[in-house]
Write a structure and sequence with these properties.
This protein is of the alpha/beta class. It has a single domain, classed as Rossmann fold (3-Layer(aba) Sandwich). It has seven helices and five strands; from the N terminus they run βααβααβααβαβ. The protein has a five-stranded parallel beta sheet. The protein is globular and about 40 Å long. It starts with a strand and ends with a strand.
Length: about 130
C-alpha cells in the first residue's frame, strides 16, 4: 500500500467531523496513520475551497473560525495542503469522467503527484481515472 495519498473532500469531512464510522476501516487507518506521521495525505487546495463552501452553507458546523480550524486540523504531522498548479487545470480540462469541476481538479491533482485518491465517489470508482483507495 502507498504511503502517500490525496484525499477527496467527503472522506476528509467525515474524518474531521467525527463521522469517520462512515469511512471504510482502511481509509480511517490511513488518516490515523497520517495524523501520527506514518503516512502522508495531501489535501488539494480545491478540497479546502469545497470544504469552505460546505461550512459556509451550514452543512458542517465549526466551533472556531475556518482560519483557526484549518490551522489546527489540516496540518497534522503528515497532512498538508497541496497547491493548485497549472498542470492540474490543463489535465482536468482533458478529463471527461465527470462534469463536476471539483472532482476533475482533485483527480488531476492525484494524477500529477502519482498518488492514490481517497474517495468514495461512485463516478470516480466506475470510471477509474486514477488510482483509488476506498
Amino acid at each position: 500500500m502507498s504511503v502517500v495519498f490525496v484525499t477527496d473532500t467527503h472522506p476528509l469531512v467525515h474524518y474531521l467531523t467525527g463521522t469517520a464510522k462512515k469511512l471504510p476501516t482502511k481509509v480511517k487507518n490511513v488518516f490515523d496513520d497520517a495524523v501520527a506521521g506514518r503516512k502522508s495525505i495531501f489535501i488539494p487546495a480545491i478540497v479546502l475551497w469545497e470544504f469552505s463552501i460546505i461550512v459556509k452553507a451550514g452543512r458542517v458546523k465549526l466551533e472556531v473560525t475556518l482560519d483557526e480550524y484549518v490551522k489546527e486540523k489540516f496540518f497534522a504531522k503528515a497532512i498538508s495542503i497541496l497547491d493548485l498548479e497549472v498542470d492540474d487545470i490543463l489535465l482536468s480540462s482533458k478529463l471527461n469522467f465527470s462534469r463536476d469541476p471539483f472532482d476533475t481538479i482533485i483527480v488531476a491533482t492525484a494524477i500529477r503527484v502519482d498518488c492514490p485518491l481517497i474517495t468514495g465517489d461512485s463516478v470516480i470508482h466506475e470510471t477509474k481515472p486514477c488510482q483509488i483507495l476506498w
